[in-house]
Amino acid sequence: MTVYLNDKPVQVPELTTLRKLLMDNQITPAGKAAAINDHAVPPGLWADTILHPGDRILIFRAFYGG
């Protein structure tokens, strides 16, 4: 199935988790934040969050302040 990782199409097997997607794409989770279809996903849920066809995943560096 196709999902979009930072706007790039990526083929993944069904039942792929967000954590597996990051690992397969050599993205280290430390200091990163994630959103799927514009909804933030806390790091504690990455291993349990199953991706669906067409999901748009945005991974970015987490920062604090303003």
CATH classification class? Alpha Beta
- What do we call the CATH homologous superfamily? Beta-grasp domain
Q: Using the alpha-carbon principal axes, give the shape.
A: globular
Give the strand order, joined by hyphens, for the main sheet: 2-1-5-3-4
CATH architecture: Roll
Any overview of this molecule?
The chain has 66 residues and is mainly β. It has a single domain (2-61), classed as Roll (Ubiquitin-like (UB roll)), CATH 3.10.20. It has 1 helix and 5 strands. A 5-stranded mixed sheet has the order 2-1-5-3-4, with no helix packed on it. The protein is globular and about 35 Å long. The N and C termini lie far apart (38 Å).
Short account of what is shown:
Helices cover 11% and strands 33% of the residues. The protein has 66 residues and is mainly beta. The mean pLDDT is 94.
